[in-house]
Amino acid sequence: MKIHLTSVFVDDQAKAERFYTEILGFVKKHDVPVGEKDRWLTVVSPDEPDGTELLLEPAGHPAVKTFRDALVEEGIPLAQFAVDDVKAEYQRLSGLGVRFTQEPLEMGPVTTAVFDDSCGNLIQIATKPR
User: Fold this and answer.
1) Strands 122-126 and 110-116, sheet pairing
2) In angstroms, rounded to a whole number, what is the distance separating the alpha carbons of residues 123 and 8?
3) For residue 8, with 0-12 CB atoms within 10 Å meaning exposed, 13-18 middle and 19 or more buried, which class applies?
4) For the segment 72-128, what is each residue's pLDDT rounded down to a tens digit?
5) In angstroms, rounded to a whole number, what is the distance separating the alpha carbons of residues 85 and 130?
6) Would the N or C end of the chain have less CB density within 10 A of its end CB?
7) Which H or E run contains 94?
8) How far, in Å, CA of 75 to CA of 78, rounded?
9) Which of 87, 112, 114, 86 has its CA nearest to residue 99?
10) φ/ψ (deg, to 5) at 67
11) How far is CA 87 from the centre of its chain?
12) Residue 116 forms beta bridges with which residues?
């Protein structure tokens, strides 16, 4: 068994597509219309085009707002992405205007940082423990 797909709820799929591809560097995998305005929109790492897909899922369900607002209020990231160098990625993303809620923080063998994805979520980046 392996993880094939996971998702983040987003306020605006077009805005999320731009942020996750143009800023974070993911590549679009699937973009299929669903209903009147929504899409089955997934992105993947350019390093693993056949790897785990991230669904940029519309946040239309009423429970989503309550859930995400509570996470953001508590500073809890919804998802975590692995990077080779958190400090370098922090500098790169900050230079692109990404707002961080936690600057790089070393915690033993792992360094983390948390940013606002501009679509309603906090996302953590972390180095893999070695």
Assistant:
1) antiparallel
2) 10
3) buried
4) 999 999 999 999 999 999 999 999 999 999 999 999 999 999 999 999 999 999 997
5) 12
6) N
7) helix 86-95
8) 9
9) 114
10) -60, -50
11) 17
12) 122
